[in-house]
Specification:
Elements lengths: L4 E9 L5 H11 L3 E13 L2 E7 L2 H12 L4 E6 L5 H9 L7 E3 L14 H8 L4 E2 L3 H8 L6 H12 L5 E6 L4 E6 L2 E6 L11 H14 L4 H19 L14
Parallel strand pairs: 1-2, 1-4, 4-5, 5-6, 6-7
Antiparallel strand pairs: 2-3, 7-8, 8-9
Helix pairs in contact: 1-7, 2-3, 5-6, 7-8
Bound molecules: pyridoxal-5'-phosphate.
């Protein structure tokens, strides 16, 4: 039997920790067949981002059309999108993107700006599972989101923009907040002591997409993704791959 086909629309991380590379590793580890549309090429390693080359919108469109016209894509994860023209290309094909998960990527772990609130805000209103971390939720709402209470109200406010569900992640608080169908569920976690967390947001959203493609309802997909990220953080916690904070394991 064929594996489920999952698509990532995201940026490349030459250091292999986040972006397209993390997404494809997650897809493979969880039994999906991964396809990819690259929106930007970043030059980066564990110390940070040194250059970003945006892929022209027409090449993003050609990649999307090539994949969607031939392969039975069952779920789609959207990561780094910095160009409004690329957002438009995606919007024009939104109806062909099933089980959509949007990770509103704004800033790299090491601090470089990867996305703009105006562009990411448009994508966040799609009927998707939206997976901002606390900082991304704060940027989208224009106010800080720091405490558990602020995460709960942020999830509800972001849900009002149009997504199917919102998961605000707060790894430092060992708490994620899921807002689905008007209800809030607190998902307590177990903090994993590690500096090697690069790519954990990408991995989380990709794992949700795989489980949605396999037919899980949103809460089960989110729980499975949370468990996969926790195992990856544990697995990579003693790694010293580069000179800076490294990635999680897959
Ligand atoms: N996408 C790309 C291309 C990146 O380089 C990064 C972070 O550096 C991200 C997404 C977001 O990474 P994370 O999963 O650590 O939030």
């Amino acid at each position: 039997m064929n594996p489920p086909v999952v698509l990532t629309i995201a940026g490349s991380d030459s250091g292999g920790g986040a972006g397209i590379q993390a997404d494809l590793k997650t897809f493979a580890a969880l039994g999906a067949f991964g396809t990819s549309v690259i929106t930007a090429i970043t030059a980066q390693n564990t110390l940070g981002v040194t250059a970003i080359h945006p892929v022209p919108a027409e090449i993003v469109a050609a990649q999307l059309d090539a994949v969607l016209s031939d392969l039975p894509v069952a779920a789609v994860k959207i990561g780094m999108i910095s160009d409004p023209d690329v957002a438009k290309v995606i919007a024009e094909r939104a109806d062909a993107l099933p089980n959509l998960v949007v990770d509103p990527v704004l800033v790299a772990t090491a601090g470089s700006r990867l996305g703009e609130v105006a562009v990411v805000g448009v994508l966040s209103a799609y009927p998707c599972v939206l997976t901002p971390n606390r900082h991304e939720a704060g940027a989208l709402l224009g106010r800080p989101v720091e405490t558990a209470e602020e995460m709960i109200s942020a999830a509800a406010e972001l849900a009002a923009l149009g997504p199917r569900a919102v998961v605000v992640t707060g790894s430092e608080l060992a708490l994620d907040v899921l807002h689905l169908d008007g209800e809030t569920t607190l998902l307590p976690g177990e903090p994993v002591p590690t500096v090697n967390n690069h790519g954990s947001g990408c991995t989380f959203s990709s794992a949700i997409a795989v489980r949605l493609a396999a037919g899980d309802p949103v809460p089960a997909a989110v729980a499975a993704a949370k468990d996969y990220v926790r195992r990856g953080l544990r697995g990579g916690s003693t790694w010293k791959l580069g000179q800076g904070p490294g990635p999680l394991d897959h």
